[in-house]
């Protein structure tokens, strides 16, 4: 599943080549195949937001040498399109300027993200390890397209509980990633967050064949990379009463685990964290579980702000690829995939006791 979601056919599950829409359609079909019930008449909860995209030309030459998008350079996500040739003036060892609207920065690591606005300045970040000489001139031809109302969908399903169906345990993971930068470069997003979605789907299959006293809900959020927009929209327009959610587990960046895992909100809900640790110790699953406090760093956040108890779980160790073109399925170890599955099942079971 991670390999499928991180493949070129979904083009980074983002904003060009219909990547996010294709992923949403795929996940809706998976929900139906598993046998989940939609939270409304359809699995999709639609919403929209602005986004800056780069669908076409992505050409940068430094000193006459063509650079490779994603590997040698990225464009700042708020940049407008631009076409020009210019001399570069050195500001310091890492910063260069062609004119007030065109800047070049040298970086040790290229990390991209999503922008919901466009500025007047274009900034090109270059991997300094791949640049063998001081940049003196730049030739650039980049196309951007600002989409004011990009249409996205949260994918929402559930399994009705056998004894207390009004009590809900919720499992969430965002399925969107960064999409593509230009017509030939995309960001696979295997760890971020194909691994989380794959874990969610595995849990959905398990709970479909093992009905629980409580109802179990499953939400794959869109728009997380643009600022937790899908989860915020759901909390503001809930398809289930938020007061009925007894606990939420959000899965993001769970494709490793050599160095254990971290639980955001652990210190906010110490009794639940103690319960999680107890299950882990009894079954000898994850090597180390780190405690972390409140943080607005994934889709659990707006739920917690509305009083829904929630943990955000992420694993640690393994490849360091993050928000780059190297976050690929073939290099993702999925070290603790099965143990994390068992830990969540065990924790949910204790919550329902």
Automatic annotation (TrEMBL):
Superkingdom of source: Bacteria
Cross-referenced Pfam families: Peptidase_M28
Transmembrane stretches, start-end: none
Annotated Peptidase M28 domain residues: 154-344
Alphabetized InterPro entries for the sequence: M28_fam (IPR045175), Peptidase_M28 (IPR007484)
Protein name: Peptidase M28 domain-containing protein
């Amino acid at each position: 599943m991670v390999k499928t979601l991180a493949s070129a056919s979904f083009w980074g599950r983002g904003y060009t080549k219909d990547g996010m829409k294709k992923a949403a359609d795929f996940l809706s079909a998976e929900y139906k195949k598993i046998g989940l019930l939609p939270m409304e008449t359809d699995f999709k909860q639609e919403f929209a937001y602005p986004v800056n995209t780069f669908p076409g030309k992505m050409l940068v030459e430094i000193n006459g040498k063509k650079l490779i998008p994603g590997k040698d350079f990225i464009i700042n996500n708020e940049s407008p399109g631009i076409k020009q040739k210019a001399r570069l003036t050195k500001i310091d060892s890492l910063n260069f300027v062609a004119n007030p609207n065109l800047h070049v920065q040298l970086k040790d690591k290229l990390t991209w993200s999503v922008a919901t606005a466009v500025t007047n300045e274009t900034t090109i970040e270059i991997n300094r390890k791949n640049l063998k000489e001081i940049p003196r001139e730049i030739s650039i031809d980049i196309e951007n397209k600002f989409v004011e109302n990009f249409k996205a969908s949260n994918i929402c399903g559930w399994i009705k509980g056998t004894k207390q169906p009004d009590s809900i345990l919720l499992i969430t993971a965002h399925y969107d990633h960064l999409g593509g930068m230009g017509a030939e470069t995309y960001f696979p997003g295997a760890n971020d967050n194909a691994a989380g979605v794959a874990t969610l789907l595995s849990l959905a299959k398990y709970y479909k064949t093992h009905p629980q006293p409580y109802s179990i809900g499953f939400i794959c959020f869109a728009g997380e990379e643009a600022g937790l927009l899908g989860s915020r929209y759901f909390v503001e327009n809930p398809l289930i009463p938020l007061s009925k959610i007894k606990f939420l587990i959000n899965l993001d960046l769970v494709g490793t685990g050599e160095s254990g895992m971290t639980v955001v909100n652990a210190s906010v809900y110490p009794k639940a964290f103690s319960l999680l640790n107890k299950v882990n110790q009894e079954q000898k699953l994850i090597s180390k579980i780190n405690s972390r406090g409140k943080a607005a760093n994934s889709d659990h956040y707006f739920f917690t702000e509305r009083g829904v108890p929630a943990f955000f779980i992420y694993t640690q160790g393994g490849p360091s690829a993050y928000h780059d073109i190297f976050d690929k399925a073939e290099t993702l170890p999925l070290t603790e995939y099965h143990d994390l599955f068992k830990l969540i099942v065990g924790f949910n079971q204790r919550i329902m006791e």
